[in-house]
Amino acid sequence: MPPERHRRSETLDALRTAGAPLGVADVAERLGVHPNTARFHLDALVADGAAERTLERPSGPGRPRTVYAARPGMDRSGSRGYRLLAQILLSRLAAGPGGRVEAERAGREWGRFLVDRPPPFSRTSAGDATERLTALLADLDFAPEPSGDAVRLRHCPFLELAEEYGPLVCDVHLGIMRGALAELDAPVEAEGLEPFAEPGACLARLRRT
């Protein structure tokens, strides 16, 4: 763990074990650090939503003291393992007989959900549908580039997973495009996806219907 993250974790632990809100000087004394260092990490915890800052009424004359307390719930400052989660789910799909079908189906459902839908009672042309699909792929970080009846995908946000699980990840991508175009009720459909069709891109082929 990086030193700064380790210190922030220690700061949160100090708040959790205190039993009562702590001031900057209290935290600095418990951790053996300068008050400015304690204040920096306390404010960062507040910004992250892991702690809350309040004013404590003085028992006598004087200004209210700023105190900090940990918010209830799990620590959100730790690392995440989303890639491992994706590997777990993809390995399960890869082990099943209908994994590719399920991957494409999941992509379709998400494509329907993610696409920017047109106004009610309007018809979507093939050109408009391609533009909306390209905008969706750009939002998903595929770096799309329309090219005739195809869309060149110059970046894969799941590249390492695609290299490891190949067709399953591509089926999800293809499903997203098919679901989006189906939701648009457009006269165009995603006919297929050629992974790494070019040295620096995959190629999604579109077909007018």
From TrEMBL:
InterPro entries: Tscrpt_reg_IclR_N, WH-like_DNA-bd_sf, WH_DNA-bd_sf. Residues 54-73 are annotated as: Disordered. Residues 12-53 form the HTH iclR-type domain. Pfam families: HTH_IclR. GO terms for molecular function: DNA binding. GO terms for biological process: regulation of DNA-templated transcription. SUPFAM superfamilies: Winged helix' DNA-binding domain. This is Helix-turn-helix domain-containing protein. It comes from Actinomadura montaniterrae.
